[in-house]
Write a structure and sequence with these properties.
Number of strands: 10
Distance between the termini: 54 Å
Strand content: 5-15%
Strand order of the largest sheet: 1-10-9-7-8
Shape: globular
Number of helices: 16
Helix content: 40-55%
Largest sheet: 5 strands, mixed
Structural class: alpha/beta
Order of helices and strands: EHHEHEHEHHEHEHHHEHEHEHHEHH
Radius of gyration: 22 Å
């Protein structure tokens, strides 16, 4: 494993017993890999869809000023996580990549979406509508609005839209497929065996990555790195995802909040992807912990006081990169004038590296359970490994808590009520 995971605070008394229990979860994962009943586990080695993903990425890019991805939750967060690696929506500075401009309209807001449609150069824009079920209300409304805008200026929807949704099934409605098929719009099949929040390694996540010019093969290779110790039948203490799951499950009674704090701007969307993955997979039957995403160093100023001196109800994961020696270097005279002569010769990356280390050590010294995951580089392979690590950790934790990580009954209930209230108006 290229990622380095370390636990920086004494492990709880029941940790060894809980870690031993992960053996059954690991055996189940190996069995489901062998019989193919959990398609997620076969994605790292999948190759037969790469040409199609790259081909559609080229189609979306050529002659295009803007690509708009329509989809919410798991249909969007994975793609955003990967696109941010390529410089999309970097906090504080915006997009640091070549055209086309990428937009993820994952939240339904009337003013924001109306403003986007008004400002887009529609003749050179492309829309990608993503919904596994094809019945996501937010995505359907955005798609209909975009279709209306394109047709209003006499453009052919076939040339401006692409869909990703499940294959047609007899007796099962799929509004997105019906809508796009009526307009002869191309569609890619969403793998029916991979839920939205686990779909980052499918075309749902890899198509945006390919549009941004990322190496999608390296992303999947990194995922294979995370899966390798599971398939190699390693003991639980040699499987990083099992160790992380055991830590979370052994503390679940007292540490009801899971803080994910990443020390790199290009990992901000990763923390948001993690929040949905953890919350929607584990929050069932009175089980689960509440995930919080944070970004370092900025959230040291807004949250660390609470983390250290507030309620002791949190388990911390600090994700660090290798920024040392990178960024602007401080010259001597201004450093002295600022009262910080030791800054002389140091880079901004040196300070970020020191802060990440200091945060983890301060939390540990104050009795807070914390683990550190370190990436040598923030690149495709390392991010792919990080994503698969947490998907595996989530599945194993669900096994330990006795919940199904792949359903979301409470979310479905809310969707039904929202449509009921809409039609009642």
């Amino acid at each position: 494993m290229a990622l380095k995971q370390s636990i920086d605070q004494a492990r709880p008394d029941n940790f060894a017993a809980v870690l031993a229990r992960t053996g059954a979860a690991l055996a189940s994962l190996r069995a489901r890999y062998a019989d193919g009943t959990l398609p997620l586990l076969r994605l790292p080695e999948k190759r037969d869809d790469v040409a199609a993903i790259l081909g559609y990425a080229t189609l979306l890019r050529d002659g295009t000023s803007d690509v708009v991805f329509l989809g919410t939750g798991g249909s969007s967060l994975g793609g955003q996580t990967l696109a941010q690696l390529a410089g999309h929506a970097v906090p504080g500075v915006g997009t640091l990549r070549d055209p086309p401009r990428i937009h993820f309209m994952d939240n339904l807001d009337p003013d924001s979406y109306a403003a986007l449609l008004e400002r887009l150069p529609l003749k050179t824009s492309r829309f990608v509508a993503v919904s596994k079920s094809g019945g996501t209300g937010e995505t359907l409304m955005q798609t209909i609005a975009a279709l209306d805008a394109v047709k209003a200026i006499h453009l052919d929807p076939h040339e401006h839209f692409l869909g990703i949704t499940e294959p047609a099934k007899p007796g099962k409605a799929n509004g997105l497929r019906d809508l796009l098929s009526h307009h002869q719009i191309r569609m890619m099949d969403h793998d029916p065996g991979v839920g939205g929040r686990f779909s980052v390694l499918t075309n749902v996540g890899l198509l945006p990555a390919a549009v941004c010019g990322l190496d999608i093969g390296a992303i999947r290779a990194g995922a294979a790195d995370a899966l390798a110790p599971v398939l190699a039948n390693k003991q639980p203490n040699d499987v990083p995802a099992a160790v992380g799951a055991a830590l979370a499950a052994s503390l679940v009674a007292s540490k009801t909040i899971a803080v994910m704090m990443a020390y790199a701007d290009r990992l901000l969307m990763f923390t948001r992807w993690y929040v949905q993955l953890w919350a929607e997979s584990l929050g069932k039957n009175g089980q689960g912990t509440t995930p919080i995403g944070a970004l370092g160093p900025v959230d040291q100023h807004s949250q660390l006081q609470l983390y250290i001196a507030g309620p002791r109800d949190k388990l911390f994961t600090i994700v660090t990169a290798s920024p040392a020696g990178r960024g602007p270097r401080m010259s001597a005279d201004p450093a002295k004038l600022a009262g910080e002569p030791d800054f002389s010769g140091k880079t901004i990356g040196d300070l970020v590296a020191a802060q990440g280390r200091a945060t983890a050590e301060t939390l540990a010294k104050n009795g807070c359970p914390v683990r550190t995951i370190h990436l040598e580089r923030v690149d495709e392979r390392h991010l792919g490994e990080l994503l698969m690590h947490f998907m595996l950790e989530t599945i194993i934790t669900a096994h330990l808590l006795g919940v199904d990580p792949f359903d979301q009954p409470a979310v479905e209930e809310g969707k039904v009520l929202a449509k009921k209230y809409l039609t009642a108006r």
